[in-house]
Write a structure and sequence with these properties.
The structure holds two protein chains of two kinds. By secondary structure, chain A is mainly β. Chain A has no helices and eleven strands. Helices cover 0% and strands 50% of the residues of chain A. Classes of the chains: A mainly beta, B mainly beta.
Chain lengths: 113, 114
């Protein structure tokens, strides 16, 4: 019972580099989310998806892209990393029923230097 | 828009002390309310929830009551343990269906000393 799996756990990037944060869930959940967590600022929604082939912007989408080609995977792409993207990134999923809880991955700590 | 305000941390308590973490919200309609907990090095986990006014959510000795008149959802526990040390997030849901999203507070760090 893996749940939501995120890779990598830690990464250091140089300004301008690109990378993809991976997220996979094995619970057949329709809804998936990407959040970033900045110190003392709570979680901000970056992008979300309600099913394969469907994605939409959250509160802070600038500088990021996502895709959802399968139900299981929801990768987050940073094209030109900036210091402002230094954060902890969490992927989450839920089945799709009303008021159902979110299942979170353990996070990716990203530093852009 | 929706917003959640939590009491500022950090909160430091001795084992067996009483805990209150205040949470108030601003929302349109009738949101559901949640408390999530984040243990060190882990993702968030749902602690408890309440889906309508006057509902009480409870789990692991923690309780919170949905008070619509005061727009509050304060978290309480009568006797904390060292293992309760974590960051606690209050959250509310937007409308259901495809627009369902959670709005989180900033989090409150709780440290319980033996």
């Amino acid at each position: 019972n893996a749940g939501v799996t995120q890779t990598p756990k830690f990464r250091i990037l140089k300004i301008g580099q690109s990378m993809t944060l991976q997220c996979a869930q094995d619970m057949n959940h329709n809804y998936m989310y990407w959040y970033r967590q900045d110190p003392g600022m709570g979680l901000k929604l970056i992008y979300y998806s309600v099913g394969a082939g469907i994605t939409d912007k959250g509160e802070v989408p600038n500088g990021y892209n996502v895709s959802r080609s399968t139900t299981e995977d929801f990768p987050l792409r940073l094209e030109l990393a900036a210091p402002s993207q230094t954060s902890v990134y969490f992927c989450a999923s839920r089945p799709g029923t009303v008021n159902e809880k979110l299942f979170f991955g353990s996070g990716t700590q990203l530093s852009v230097l | 828009g929706n917003s959640v305000t939590q009491m500022e941390g950090p909160v430091t308590l001795s084992e067996e002390a009483f805990l209150t973490i205040n949470c108030t919200y601003t929302a349109t309609g009738y949101p559901s309310l949640f408390w999530y907990v984040q243990y060190p090095g882990e993702g968030l986990q749902l602690l408890l929830k309440a889906t309508k006014a006057d509902d009480k959510g409870s789990n692991k000795g923690f309780e919170a009551t949905y008070r619509k008149e005061t727009t509050s959802f304060h978290l309480e526990k009568g006797s904390v343990q060292v293992s309760d040390s974590a960051v606690y997030f209050c959250a509310l849901s937007s409308s259901g269906g495809s627009n369902y999203k959670l709005t989180f507070g900033k989090g409150t760090l709780l440290t319980v000393n033996p």
